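To whoever picks this up:

The parser on our side crashed when reading a file containing two proteins. I've narrowed it down to the boundary between the first structure block and the second sequence. Both blocks are reproduced below exactly, byte for byte. First block:
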Amino acid sequence: MKNTVIEQLATVLDGTLSVQEIEDMLEKPKFEQLGDIAFPCFLLAKKYRKSPHLIAEEISQQIAKEGFEKIEVLGGYINFFYDKVTFANAVITKVLKERDQYGAKEETGKQIVIDYSSPNIAKPFSMGHLRSTVIGQALANIAEKNGDKAIRINHLGDWGTQFGKLIVAYKKWGSKELVEASPIEELLKLYVKFHEVADDALNDEARAAFKMLENGDSESLQLWQWFREESIKEFMTLYDLMNIQFDSFAGEAFYNDKMPSVVEELEKKGLLVESDGADVVELENMPPCLIKKKDGATLYATRDLAAAFYRMKNYQPKAIYYVVGNEQSLHFNQWIQVVEKMGYEWAKSLHHVPFGMMLKDGKKMSTRKGKVVLLANVLEEVIEMVKQNIEEKNPNLENKEEVAKAVGVGAVIFHDLKNFRLNDIEFSLQEMLNFEGETGPYVQYTFARIQSILEKQPFKENRSYILEVNDYEWPIYTQLVEFPTIVEKAYEHADPSLVAKFALKLARTFNKYYGNTKILESDDFLNGRLALCESVAIVLKESLRLLGIETPKSM
């Protein structure tokens, strides 16, 4: 119906505005009594030298009324009221025809790189790492729904001065037997102990140890490789549980041999200057970007520069997204400006996607201080809670383990993604496990409820249906039609919360309809009500899929 409005306006305006300009100008009225969609005529006043109200009157008189309940002019706006039955039929027909492709755009042939998750090896996967992981995964799914191919990269934190600290700590206090028995747990203890007793001398030892690692010392490399392999094994257990896949696990160490060429180019272009013994690039409106320390050791910026050049050359993406916490904003602003100063136009396609922190008791979780909540423990506890809930409410449920996993993991993911990414989130098991209200399980249960209805009385696709458009059904149709726009905006703003909030709204609206309607009543509208149920189920399932959440058919 929106396309009908656009086409009609384009015909009447006869080239005064492009189709895209008309679409951009259309508004959804704030109040329902003002119509379903409105076209403001204020920008046309200068062109036609008439009042917006008069222009609106003249245009409205030339628009065919078919498909509209009425068309009204009010204060310079043309307000369109859709014919509800025509509108509802158009929406349901489209959803049922396209099914899981509803809201999908044609493939563009272009690809984007998304750098996300990126935990540090030799450290446990904490709730603090959850945000980058689930936001990045959702953005990759949303990008592909919008027609772009997503290259998913897990830029592991497998290099840097922290490994000098860990090597020193292991040599001083570590036990091979204890590390082999419980690698991540024991390595974390060593890392925390280092920071508890660290003084200038110990920090100097750590810096020297990392320099030896950079220089290829065999013992240091062997320890580092061991730490890395054990860490990835543990990470993969979590990724598998959360159904998260990557195209590449190339971490910081992968770019060690790719940094010299970047530093050499910076020198050739006269951008590298000495500052207190270190090599930096001077920047506008921010501190200089540190490329090499006094001792010649490289930094995060050096490796990120090398990674960006490698990715642009090998993937030729239209954009690279870095899903990293907002506390790293300065770092990204600095090295991206370095790329600009090097004269590369593609610097404009490098985007930092920041997000707020996961807090515990109002404070940032810190691995150094041991104040950390492990994601594995949270997932295990949530899944166990769901199992108990199933035993109490639906003990005869089939596939209890699979359902508990889908609901438990979904609860954790949705708790994160329902929030606008820049907001900080307070870790709360109680809120995460609230199975009513604004939670993933609530949306999943709505989907399962619809499956139960359709199991009792399947929707007959080969049979015609009549839609009954009442006060409880109409909001569902108007929300279903919004889904493609929501998916587009979520990609445009790198904001998965738009999809999560949409799913919640649709679930609430359907449940209100369910509570006030005898869906399975045998009458002329039965197959129409089932068509509506089928359409809602399709869109809820696809919404949750985009967020990385499964939809059990029963709960």
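<<boundary where parser fails>>
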Amino acid sequence: MDNIWYVLSKTWKYEKRLLVVIILQTIIGVILPLAAAVLPAWVVDGIENGIDHMIVTKIAAVLILLLICNAVMAYLSSIQGTYLLNNKMGFLSSVLRREMEVDYAYAESPEGQNKFQDAFLSVLNDNRGITGLISLIAPLTSSILGLTINAIIIARFNVWIIVVLSATAAVHLLIAAVVRKKQDTLREPLSDSSRKLDYIYQYMCGNASAREIKLFDMKKWITSVLDSVTKIHIRLAKKSAGLNFFLTVADCVMLAIRDIFAYFVTFWTVYTGGIDVWEFVFYLGIITSISSFFTELINTVSVFGQRNLEIHTFREFADRDCSDEGVELDIGKPVTIELRDVSFRFCDDGPYVLRHINLTLHEKEKIAFVGENGAGKSTLVKIICGLYKPTEGRVLVNGVDLEEIKLSAYYKLLAVAFQDIHILPMTIGENIAFGEADSYEEALRKCLEVAGLDNEFLDAQKPLTRILDTNGLVPSGGQEQKLILARVVFKILYKNARILVLDEPTAAMDAISEKAFYEKYMRLSKHKSCILISHRLKSTNLCDTIVVMEKGQIAERGTHEELMNGDTKYRAMYELQSSFYQ
């Protein structure tokens, strides 16, 4: 009932007219079976006892009522789809907003992805989740009301019919509960296989992946992976379908027992003269209605249990606590970040990615993280940025634990460019300043110039990519990186960010462009702190401190000169790289 109330309260917020449709469908769903039982009984009464003015009036009234009800139901069916779509968009919007608000580590984890997948599908699929449950409310309420009214009528005729109907319904509900419990065990595996299929389909449809598939002859391999995951998904779906088939067979058996008993009692009563023929027709109609209501109620309750589980998984994600509370930071005050004995791993039984990191980033200090791939550099940066929480240890910002700080306020201090690039199919300006693009048009031009973009890229109103606009620009890899760096410039120059974070943002640049880039950005961040990750060590000598990472730990630290003067890993890496340019 809590889930029903939850869905109805949200529906009242998103699309009130849908609730009016549900109420009308419920009322008409009760009236139609009653009218269908009364009409033939009165016709038979008129034939048997003579047609008079009263009989004709009653028959005409029922016919008019049936006409009105069927017309209204047809109209409701025609408009319900639009209202359901409006309502669906409201729920979908809430899921997508929550996806943007949840912890980054949770959103990135398999659990978070599965929960999002469940919540997303429970909105998107018309036969499941939110829409599926809403579609069941009218049949459920009309079945309960109709069953109650018809049961009162038939109880006056023979109470044993109600007893048998109730007993068979109870048995069927018990069977449905067992089946539902078994189906619940399939929910997580089905969600996981759906997520994997979705990822494979997205990869196969992407422009970049299309190039890789052709150039590296990946067709057979991708097909085999898809077939493997599909087989798993089909096997799970077959199990679920088999359980549904068993439930359908059980319903047919219970229905046969109910109808055989009810019809026998009615036939016997009219045969022995206990009721008139028109009463026989009437009670036969009522029994048919009761049987129909029982079947619909049992099936609805059975499906309702599955929809209830889907609403529960929707709420697990949609109602997840994403409150952004904590200490506000003074943006104008110098910032010092300290990591005290920080360790991190992605799950409780997983290996440590970082171990016992102790590090301090002072105001205006430039720190470079270097090391082999998998050394933990990007993970450490994500912890400093507040995207991951340390498994052990603390991150202090001006002496305050980062977990006690309002993250939205902390993010304002950061200007970050990660190595993976995400370009939006919007204008150039919106890719840099997002919703504030129109207010900073001249500023955006300067940001683009600083990032090394010119000519048509200097038009902030120019559409980017051709996904939404056929006249859009199609940037190269290097131009995409420069656009991301223009975002960083915007935050530093116009949004007062105090910490510049560059996680290998120059991978698509040549060595000369990269050197010019780092010199420019070091000048830009002269009065800011800077964290740099780069595999090209020629850029690291611009930093005050160099931290060498190895297997999730700090192996060495010092200035460029200090590390070059000793027998260090940094010196070995630096000289090895330098030899390729000699």
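After patching the parser it read the second block fine. The longest helix spans residues 219-271. The chain is about 65% helix and 10% strand.
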